[in-house]
Amino acid sequence: MLYIGSHISAAKGYEAMGKQALKLGANTFAFFTRNPRGGKAKEIDEEDVGRFLALAKEHSFGKLVAHAPYTMNACAAKEDIRRFARETMADDLRRMEYTPGNYYNFHPGSHVGQGSDVGMALTAEILNETLKPEQTTTVLLETMSGKGSEIGRNFEELRKILDLVELQDKMGVCLDTCHVWDGGYDIVNDLDGTLKKFDETIGLDRLKAIHMNDSMNPLGSHKDRHEKIGQGKIGLKAMEEVLNHPKLQGLPVILETPNDDAGWAKEIMLLRSLHR
């Protein structure tokens, strides 16, 4: 089965998100745990969550892929920024347990001049402080494009972070097609080779979700600018191959393309028509 959806606003609660996903033709979705630029999260309404869980079961939803705010930099040089990351992640993971067994995706962070090795160690440190043996949520490191001082710019860096985390069974990876393309992995001409490299470096068993985005930029640009499906440098044929690759079946596919609801509905319909 193809589990596909887009980012949906969490402002009106879980049941509203589920109903909006269905309107778009989706059977999964992503949502920011709080304002993507940071701030306090909305209080959880347990009755609302209960209605959503019933809706998701009725319509056979796939795993949800929650997204941490962009301002959460776990390897920042400033302690107040790292404190925000630590507190936000802990609060988000507590809240995620209201919808157990789903995914919490975050950008590994930017080392801001400290160096990649320091950045990776600091991000792993916060994960080790935050992850709990009893949690049902899997935390996903997102593949990054390598702009600025980002860590996670290649599979090797993601593996180094993972190796520093104590609760290995609570961790996974989300592969962003735009990010890996901008990061230098040629998923247009060598998707098999890219996945082989991922498997050798990280392990495909760690790959839990896909962010499906075309790119405005050429291979290896390290710029991270998403484009609508089929309208960028990756192109529709390559996106179709990603969607249908035998080693990627069953993973939730999340659109983060520059669109509105009507545009995402069209892309979901298009990708469903291409899924073999």
Q: Brief overview, please?
A:
With 276 residues, this protein is of the alpha/beta class. It has helices at 14-23, 46-58, 79-96, 116-130, 155-164, 177-182, 191-201, 236-244, 261-274; strands spanning 4-6, 30-32, 65-67, 103-106, 138-142, 171-176, 207-212, 214-215, 226-227, 253-255.
Task: Give a verbal description of the structure.
The strands form two sheets. An eight-stranded parallel β-sheet has the order 1-10-7-6-5-4-3-2. By secondary structure, the protein is an alpha/beta fold. The radius of gyration is 18 Å and the shape is globular. The chain has helices spanning 14-23, 46-58, 79-96, 116-130, 155-164, 177-182, 191-201, 236-244, 261-274, and strands at residues 4-6, 30-32, 65-67, 103-106, 138-142, 171-176, 207-212, 214-215, 226-227, 253-255. β3, α3 (79-96) and β4 (103-106) form a beta-alpha-beta unit. The termini are close together. α1 runs parallel beside α2 and α4 (116-130) crosses α5. Helices cover 38% and strands 13% of the residues. The longest helix has 18 residues, at 79-96.
Give me some keywords for this one:
276 residues, alpha/beta, two-stranded antiparallel sheet, 9 helices, 38% helix
